Amino acid sequence: SYRKGGYHAVRVGDQFAGGRYIAQRKLGWGQFSTVWLAYDTRTSEYVALKIQKSAAQFAQAALHEIEILSAIANGDPSNSSCIVRLIDHFKHTGPNGQHVCMVLEFLGDSLLRLIRHNRYKGLGLNKVREICKCILIGLDYLHRELGIIHTDLKLENILLFSTIDPTKDPVRSGLAPILEKPEGNPNGGNTMNIIEKKLKRRARRVAAKISERKASMGGVVVEGAEKSQKNLDGIDARCKVVDFGSACCADKQFAEEIQTRQYRAPEVVLRAGYSFSVDIWSFACTAFELATGDMMFAPKGGQDFSEDEDHLALMMELLGKMPRKVAIGGAQSKDYFDRHGDLKRIRRLKFWPLDRLLVEKYNFSEKDAGEFAEFLCPLLDFAPEKRPTAQQCLQHPWLNLRNSTEDEMKNEANLGNVNVGMSNLEIKMG
Ligand code: ADP
Ligand code: MG
Questions:
Q1: pLDDT, greater one: 266 or 418
Q2: Intra-chain end-to-end CA distance of the chain, in Å
């Protein structure tokens, strides 16, 4: 991908925008871009520099993203909307062509990485509520003030605030000799090797510390508990929504198929048209995943049915039968449903309502399960127009409930039982 039209190869210390920004280390990458931590010499702050692939269609997409991010930033001068801030943008010419670059505020790990580090067990409900509030504030602003649909809400696209100081760690600041591999996998190269080695060493140190502590306490410390405490105490649960690469104005939609599969709303699966409420569906899937560590829907195609059909079946098993009117209302409906509104190829559904699932599979207390399901179920209404708006969700009393510390610890301990036995190194290495 590091060829004409593709990614721009960056080395630590490379300068951008006439020397204003200096590359420090790679933060991540996506289908369209690589993202680097950079030092802004004008403001003396660290920023995230998103460098788009150079081919025309990628440049076009970046300009679209800049347009949307500019509207977001202009409408929110106090930067309080829980959406990533665009600071600057420019073009950079390299050996592979001209790359549109976006300068964004520097944020931390995604919620996906948080869940991974937490061994795919859920977060305590108090933390889930804090994160949900942030996402909803972001969605409410997008939907109501700007008329924008995100269309790709998921754990990966929600970033926590960074808790690291880039100046403190030599690997992160780029003071160590890290070189970007110019060819091949954007994830490859020396950077990863050096960081991986460092992480392995660090993981060994952590493991040694834990066994030391275990010995001193007569072996009663559970590794998972120790680990999860460490993770959760450290996080600032404020977060921001990122990745507006596929966002659209509600009145100017160009894509029929939107959203990442597992977070896709039924009206999109059925091609029945969509609006803001597709983000509400994805938000509910995200909230469930935060609280349980599992995806709400993970459809797989089979021999006799497609991924779409499995997806629709999973939705109905959790939420009840789809009203006939909705089921037969999309351009794809005829392929999947008969005229009674029953799936053609998946005839026997195993209903497992959300509150029961939370109790029976995830060991939620009856009270927690009931309250959480009451919050989530309306957001997962099959009829899009019946789903509450982000503004209405923000009014829901569930967001202001507070579990006692004891309840939260019980929750985490219960969820922790699911995956005991993973080594610390594996957790650390994701
Ligand atoms: P793409 O459009 O190519 O998918 P994204 O905007 O999703 O690009 O960014 C790719 C990755 O870069 C993200 O998953 C994240 O790890 C990292 N990243 C993006 N924006 C920031 C930011 N503002 N601060 C820190 N890391 C970021
Ligand atoms: Mg992305």
A1: 266
A2: 24
